[in-house]
Amino acid sequence: MASLSESRIAEPSKGHRLVIVEGIMGSGKSTTSRLIAKHLQETGRAAVPIHERTDPHPVRATDELEHWFEPWKDVTPEDLANRSLARWTAFVQYTQSNAEIPVLDGQLFHGDLTHLLLMEADTALMFGYIRKLASIITPLNPFVLYLWQKDVERAIRTVCAERGPEWIDYQVNWKLAAPYCVRRGFVGLDGLISLYRDYRRLTDSLFQELSLAKLAIENSERDWPAYERRMLSALGADRQGR
């Protein structure tokens, strides 16, 4: 398998009607989503960033569940996948009838796919879900930006150090109570790191398979000016593209 740094970049296009920024927690998704929306606006394109905590969220399928953060208590993986695909279908129809370009913070991987993993969904189900989702959003000519880090443990420990013990306890108490983590005996910060190693292996493979316009950026060094130039050039949103 080719490394992520070698992932194909589609030809820059100003026809993207949807941008999705992906990566593990703390990878810079939210900040990058806002930056991309701002630059699209500056090049004359209506764009709106949609944070992962937007409530109600236009595509998050767990919002209507009683235990929205523990969907394994309410639905099966198959049901959650179908709910998600239905919401994405409605979202695409709505977006096609509006001028705004949504810039999503996660939701292709970081969102319902994360819940499917926590629910211990079959790998075949998760790959099938993403393939169907990619087909649903294809009419919007989407662009997927994937922020990744070679050393997952370093990345997780860095964000945990930045956000503090209360945030760490929240993440550990929520995610490690899921069936996937309980069955594997994941506990504490080390368990959270193990979970995200598994998650990254999954999303790396899913990203490689995507036939959509896409760009992977290894951002461990946090050289944001350089990353910004690459992503905006790939999107056709750099100032020279005006």
Secondary structure blueprint with pairings:
Blueprint: E1 19-22, H1 29-42, E2 47-50, H2 77-96, E3 101-105, H3 112-118, H4 123-137, E4 143-148, H5 152-163, H6 165-175, H7 179-184, H8 188-209, E5 213-218, H9 224-235
Parallel strand pairs: 1-3, 1-4, 2-3, 4-5
Explain what this protein looks like in three dimensions.
With 242 residues, this protein is an alpha/beta fold. Helices cover 49% and strands 10% of the residues. The protein has 9 helices and 5 strands. Strand 2, helix 2 and strand 3 (101-105) form a beta-alpha-beta unit. Helix 2 runs antiparallel to helix 3, helix 2 packs parallel to helix 4 and helix 6 (165-175) packs across helix 8. The relative contact order is 0.20.
Radius of gyration: 17 Å
Given helix and strand content, the structural type is: alpha/beta
Please list the strands of the largest sheet in the order they lie side by side. 2-3-1-4-5
Describe the global form.
globular
> What helical percentage do the residues reach?
40-55%
Low-confidence stretches: 6-13
Q: Which band does the percent of strand residues land in?
A: 5-15%
What distance lies between the first and last C-alpha atoms, to the nearest angstrom?
A: 36 Å
Main sheet makeup: 5 strands, parallel
Mean pLDDT comes to 92
Our count of helices gives 9
Number of DSSP-assigned strands: 5
SSE pattern, N- to C-terminal: EHEHEHHEHHHHEH
